[in-house]
Specification:
Blueprint: H1 16-28, H2 33-43, H3 49-62, E1 65-68, E2 76-79, H4 83-98, H5 103-113, H6 118-135
Antiparallel strand pairs: 1-2
């Protein structure tokens, strides 16, 4: 999967529904709109095919997906951004708007409000230690 075509121009925010559709595209890889509709219907809430096609058109306009050449009757879609890129951007927006731009406050909120198993806690400890070493 390629990164967005124009790294200088940030992509617009995604709605929750657009993120849900992107999840299906990331899962499928190169796919047709019919495949997205079929997969979405099987794994997510039911939406009209026209709604999903509209969301796909919006994702194309926003630069998140692009059509790719095919010998099939229609065209296939490919994600133009990685899931990780979208996750980081979305998380930065949440941290900025809900936690005054403080990642530490967001982490504290998550640690106080969520059940975290021992394996995840150990992974968090390791990441904190690595970050400390990195900043020295």
């Amino acid at each position: 999967m390629a990164k967005s075509n124009n790294p200088r121009k940030p992509l617009p925010e995604l709605s929750k529904l657009e993120i849900d559709v992107m999840d299906v595209i990331w899962e499928l890889g190169d796919c047709s709109s019919a495949e997205v509709i079929e997969s979405f219907a099987a794994s997510k809430r039911r939406l009209a095919p026209t709604t999903i096609r509209t969301v796909l058109a919006n994702l194309r306009k926003k630069g998140y997906v692009k059509p790719i050449p095919t010998i099939e009757r229609g065209f296939r879609l490919r994600s133009n951004v990685k899931r990780d890129e979208v996750a980081r951007k979305t998380l930065r927006g949440l941290v900025s708007s809900l936690f005054g731009g403080s990642p530490g406050q967001a982490i504290i909120h998550l640690l106080q409000g969520e059940e975290i198993d021992e394996r995840e806690l150990e992974r968090i400890r390791e990441m904190i230690e690595a970050k400390k070493r990195e900043s020295k």
